[in-house]
Amino acid sequence: MAEYEFSKEEDKKIRDDFPLLNNRDIVYMDNAATTQKPVEVIDSWKRYYENYNANPFRGVYGLSVDATEVYEDARKAVAGFIGADSYCEIVFTRNASESINLLSTSLCEYILQPGDEIIVSIAEHHSNFLPWQQAAKRYGAKVVFFECEEDGEFKKEKLEELITGRTRILAITHLSNVLGRINDVKTFAEICHKNHVLISVDGAQSVPHIPVNVKELDVDFLQFSGHKMLAPMGIGVLYGKEELLNAMPPYMYGGEMIETVTRDGATYAELPHKFEAGTVNVGGAAALAEAIRYYEKIGFEKIMARERALTKAAIEKMGEIEGIEIIGSKDPTQHEGIITFLVDGVHPHDVAAIMDAEGVCVRAGHHCAQPLLQYLYDIREKKNTGGISTTRVSMAFYNTPEEVDRMAEALAKIRPEMGLT
Ligand SMILES: Cc1ncc(COP(=O)(O)O)c(C=O)c1O
Question: Disulfide-capable partner of 348 in 83, 280, 364, 399 (CB 3.0 to 4.6 Å)?
Answer without folding.
Answer: 364
